[in-house]
Amino acid sequence: MNARISSVRPHQRHVHVLKLERWRVWAIVTLLMALFGVLLARGLYLQAFNESFLQSQGDARYTRTLKLEANRGMITDRNGDPLAISTPVQSIWCSPRGMTLLPPGQKRDDDWEPANEKDPVPVSRAEVASLGKALGMTPTDIIGRITASTKKGPNGEDIRPDFVWLKRGMAPADAKSVLALNVPGVYAQTEYRRYYPAGEVMAHIIGFTNIDGKGQEGFELTRDGMLAGKPGSRTVIRDRRGYIVEDISTIVPPRDGETLTLSIDKRIQYLAYRELKAAVEANKAVGGGIVVLDAHTGEVLALANAPSYNPNSRARIDPAARRNRALTDIYEPGSVMKPITISAVMDSGKITPSSRVDTFNGTMSIGPATIHDTHHGGVLSIAQVIQQSSNVGAARISLMMPREYMWNAYHNAGFGEVPHSGFPGEAGGILRNWKNWRPIEQATMAFGNGISVSLMQMARAYQMFADGGQIHPITFTKLVAPMPGKQVITPQSAQAMRDMMESVVQPGGTGVAARVVGYRVAGKTGTSHKLENGQYVNKYVASFIGMAPASDPRLIIAVMIDDPQGGKHFGGSVAGPVFSNVMAGSLRLLGVPPDAPTDNILLPAPDESDARE
User: Fold this and answer.
1) What is the pLDDT of residues 337-357, one digit of tens each?
2) Any idea what the CATH number is for the domain that residue 462 is in?
3) Per the omega criterion (within 30 degrees of 0), is the bond before 593 cis?
4) pLDDT at residue 605 tops 50
5) Residues 473, 463: contact at Cβ < 8 Å?
6) Exposed, middle or buried: residue 66 (CB in 10 Å: 0-12, 13-18, 19+)?
7) How many domains is the chain partitioned into structurally?
8) Does 143 share its domain with 188?
9) Is the pLDDT at 55 greater than 70, yes or no?
10) Which domain holds residue 492?
11) Is residue 243 domain-shared with residue 364, that is, in the same domain?
12) CA-wise closest residue to 246 among 235, 237, 234
């Protein structure tokens, strides 16, 4: 054995040692290369395939995309007077992530420096108290805003947001005094606040926006996309304390909203609201509505409701006051339906203005039901049926025609479907299928019972008498030229009915209080019982709808007073004076020349109009 070992030469043993050492070297080199390859692959993966993740993580810590608010478009009346404008305001916000509250009594050292960039800035309770005083808030409110949004992370750590509103919509001067306190982590941002110069007068037309500038009611809601515009953006890098260090992308400027020009005439709107509000208060009514239309274009020149609300004070708006009664409420119209019924039958050739109808001394029975007149007229001409507002006469005239014919007449007048004015929530009313009509229902619909409408629908229907039998689409937008109308009755029938409605405001008619000095007026009164829980109750809706000048109508005005309780409830005495005052003022504002002597007013005897309706 020894001989065999001794037979191995020394240089051969050295070679074996070198081979062993080389193997170790190559193993280590290979391992290092493998590790380097792993790192290289990982880097390649992160840079090439997972770049978005790294970018998002970096952006979350340093970059912010700031929203640049667009200026909401202005709303104006037909003459360019502003009805809704946006004014710049300052909103105060803070960054809870960049601040930490010190214990009571402890102050921040004057030479305080952060250990690293992520350290929040200490804020003393005295600074919080000063901030609260400037904002009109208590220190507890401020602390609550800062801490309420804190969440727990996956490891139990507190995660604070970067952005919390403290107070929005401050006047620039007030916001400047807040920033002058130099409270760490507190900043201001420019926003826009909506302001409505006309206040409650235009509330039901314009509506209002919420604190974020989104439309909530009226045309602020329906035209929100047009008015809002498109916000811009600015991407920046912010430091630990929230200060902007650098813009890292091109600023995208905001696109301001467009201006919306309505058909409303602010002067007529003020007049209409004033007179309606006064009438509702004087008659102790639940509410009321008024609509003023251009007789030849269908443009809405005024629409008002009472009660109303101030859209500049959003915090305390009574939901009942937000009801747009003229468009969204439906009611049984009463006798203002008679001209539509009679003109439809007259259009068929069955009757003429001089035809006679027996009203049976004001009483007519159909089955177990009985129709009454408040005035026993006997045999009346068609013109007298309108002038004296005979229910029996209107019912007998309607029953001359088939049910389907009368249904088509009402439907062509716009009942049973929404007016399509572009306003939110407008009502279509109720017009039941003619196949389900009984004779008593056809008879009562002739004088406005058993059918439900909105005030806007009634105003729209009366266009047929003002514009040669045509009805134009209703619009709240100022028109360059009238839209085509739909012919619903012949021009001859329209003229004949307008002549008959002039007698309503003459001595012996039910609407004497609706006369206007210097102008011929054609119109109709209406008084209907209210329907509650399927039963008629001793509550009323008083209305008057008319047009002037009757020789060539320029305006149509519809007035409705809901449940007057001041001692009068007839349309002639409650709604008629509102019509008269608004029509007189509006015609003068528009410069419409008179078509009657200026002494054409004959005062009625006390309650003369009431006695006949």
Assistant:
1) 999 999 999 999 999 998 999
2) 3.40.710.10
3) no
4) no
5) no
6) middle
7) 2
8) yes
9) no
10) 266-311+322-611
11) no
12) 237
How many other CB atoms sit within 10 Å of the CB of residue 151?
A: 9
Within 10 Å of residue 389's Cβ, how many Cβ atoms?
A: 32
CA torsion 481-486-491-495 (nearest 10°) is -80
The answer, yes or no, to whether residue 89 has pLDDT greater than 50, is: yes
The H or E element that residue 82 is part of is strand 82-94
27, pLDDT greater than 90: no
In a domain? residue 61: no
| pLDDT computed for residue 10 by the predictor | 57
Across 463-492, average pLDDT: 94
Q: What is the mean pLDDT of residues 545-558?
A: 97
Q: How far apart are CA 18 and CA 596, in angstroms?
A: 131
**Token pair of 561 as six digits:** 């007073």
Answer yes or no: do 216 and 346 share one domain.
Answer: no
Q: Which of 53-67, 115-129, 163-177 has the lowest mean pLDDT?
A: 53-67
DSSP readout, 336-362?
GGHHHHHHHHHHTTS--TT-EEE-GGG
What element of type H or E holds 238?
Answer: strand 232-238
Least confident of 68-72, 262-266, 359-363, 551-555: 68-72
| Strand, helix or coil for residue 488 | coil
User: Which residues are the active-site residues?
Assistant: 335
* 473 in the same domain as 431: yes
Distances (CA, A) of 240 to 237, 243, 257: 10, 8, 35
The label of the residue with tokens 């021009």 reads 491
Q: What is the pLDDT of residues 440-460, one digit of tens each?
A: 999 999 999 999 999 999 999
Distance, CA of 513 to CA of 290 (rounded, Å): 17
Rounded to whole angstroms, how far apart are CA atoms 446 and 401?
11
* Residues in Cβ contact with 198 at an 8 Å cutoff, skipping those fewer than 6 apart: 83, 206, 266, 269, 270
One domain for residues 411 and 489:
yes
Residue-wise pLDDT tens digits, 559-574: 999 999 988 999 999 9
